[in-house]
Amino acid sequence: MRDNTLKYLLVLPAVIVVFATAIWPLIEAARLSFTVGRLNRPGSLERYLGWENYVWAILEEPAFWNSVWVTTIYTLLTVGLTTVFALGLAMLLAPGGRLRSAAQTLLILPFAMSPALIGVSFRFMFNPEFGLFDAFFGVMIPPLADVSWLADPKLAFAVVVMADVWGWIPFLTLVLIGGLASVPRDTVEAAQVDGASGWRVFKDVTLPQLAPVLAVVVILKSIFSLKTFDQVFMLTNGGPGTATQTLSHYIYFNGMKYGQIGYSASVAWLMVIPMIFLTYAYAKFVFRKADQ
Amino acid sequence: MAEIKLSNLTKRWGDFVGVDNQSLHINDREFLVLLGPSGCGKTTTMRMIAGLEDPTSGEIWIGDRMVNDDLPKDRDVAMVFQNYGLYPHMTIFDNIAYPLRVRGTPKADIKPRVEKAAEQVELTEFLHRKPKALSGGQRQRVALARAIVRTPKVFLMDEPLSNLDAKLRVTMRAELKHLSRALQITTVYVTHDQIEAMTLADRVAVMKNGIIQQLGTPDEIYNDPANLFVAGFIGSPAMNLINGSISGGMFVTTGGTRLVPVKALDRAKAVLGVRADDMDVHEEGQGDIDVKIYAFENTGESTLLTVQWGAQRVIARGDRHLRKDQDDVVGISLNQDHLYLFDPETENRIRM
User: Are B207 and B255 in a shared domain?
Assistant: First the structure.
């Protein structure tokens, strides 16, 4: 067998798997998004409707725009907070940082938990009657006693953000520790001797050299944040009202609960648009780095 | 401008001793080279002066200030790193200007000073480039310019030439020497290259296992080595070290040859040190001893004869026009004014 043929044969299984689990569902979803697509109406999965589902989502449906808004704010907050915390932790945990050893092992723990588990455990911790936070805040800051965290739209949103940031910090910290390790020590020491303060060394020398890794971290986390579903489902189920209903949750709700498969497929495809941009940016950054 | 005093300086990592209770006084405007094999503590010593490493014990003085607790930025030193430590995201201009900027130099002063420093190291035409676009030698110059752009109390140079190719190293060495004479700033220079040490230094401190073996002018460490380590480390080819004993005022090789008269008391074990240049090559029968050539090498500027001397091999330098072949027999005589005796047990010099 020629090497060339073998090459393609070896890649084939991976291509088949990707096609079966990603490409085909995407195509099928695209087809469904142009149909009436109601699970409780026989034959409607085949009835062509044109762009109506899309038009409905964009022009007629405030709940769609609510979930777009929730997802946007949620993404901005979680990406920002996770990156900042992860960068701080990475600085402390990097070789030569101030904390290391056992802390690094402990750190990975939240990442080992499934998002759904994080959701459940945070729901218990914020339970107004017997939750950990209620007990803690009740003692430390009396005015915060007996607050129903998950019943207030703003607070519930904050809790969802917090759970996500908590769960994602470890992974991004590990990535950034790797990034920091690739910043040449010489340049940092040169800046120290040149007369730069700790902050200026960080700002002028470390950060610019960390930028490519940081960009990858931000893009990756953006993709993950946009897709968030499990935590929201377990923690608030989108509520109170629709205060924490992310796009993924909205899609699930319409498709699975209300049986509007066609409509939810069209919203899912609307969500593919920012994803494509982010994935493209991610690929560009990663492969540009590999080129150098 | 300042002198540097190290007193009882020690650096340990767990059980490993990097620098072992060393004291050293570096004079104002002196060019001091710390020379030794890798792991001898020379770089650690320099990094402690820079403030990049904290000493386990001991004091570091720069000028009349004890700097142990000062951050690197407050010590007023400039350092050239082995890998240059250039900021890859900044242009050459910004690299050189950085020490001025972080120290709050007025904007109007920065440009002329950067340009002057760049001119001193002949980089003027590259100021707008990034370090990536420069060759190794040019990057080295940028690192130098960044050090000389302000006038620090002390220059620290950590193997600055070791990443350059052999030819460039020779050129840069001369430029460094010229520059250091012109600037007249106290300099500590770390290297494992004895030629760099010999050519650049006012004084050399030869280090091994965290201990300074000998401190002296290049002349002193070459012509008056304090112990076997210094004798073997300095010089290329290395000093010949011949095992034997001293009996009746003569050095006797382990093979039993009564070789040369030495002014020392009898002892059962001694090492005779003689440099290749202090051995004269004659025709067979005309030297102190006849030996067979093991290898004959012509370097162009001279010839090197590795000869079989009993159980040992010894290298002698011959005239550049000498032509011999393997297995030829030649006579060797030793220049008796430049012989060194060492005690193989203590490794110290036996003064004649």
Answer: no
Distance (Å, rounded) from C-alpha A132 to C-alpha A128? 9
**Contact criterion met (CB below 8 Å) for B157 and B178:** no
Number of domains in chain B: 2
Token pair of A43 as six digits: 């034959």
CB count in 10 Å sphere of residue B105: 15
How many residue pairs from chains A and B have C-beta atoms closer than 8 A?
Answer: 67
Q: What is the pLDDT at residue A35?
A: 82
> Do B308 and B291 form a contact (C-beta atoms < 8 A)?
yes
CATH 1.10.760.10 fits A62-291, yes or no: no
- The distance of A189 to chain B (nearest Cα, Å) reads 7
* A146: contact with B, CB 8 A cutoff: no
Q: In what order do the strands lie in the sheet with B203-208?
A: B77-80, B154-158, B186-191, B31-35, B203-208, B211-216
Burial class (CB in 10 A: 0-12, 13-18, 19+), B275: buried
Tell me the per-residue pLDDT of A119-168, one tens digit each, with 9 for 90 and over. Answer: 888 888 887 777 777 777 777 777 766 677 778 888 888 888 988 898 88
Cβ atoms B80, B46 nearer than 8 A: no
Q: Say what the ipTM of the complex is.
A: 0.81
**pLDDT tens across B163-195, in order?**
888 888 888 888 888 888 888 899 999 999 988
Q: B318 is in which domain, residue-wise?
A: 240-350
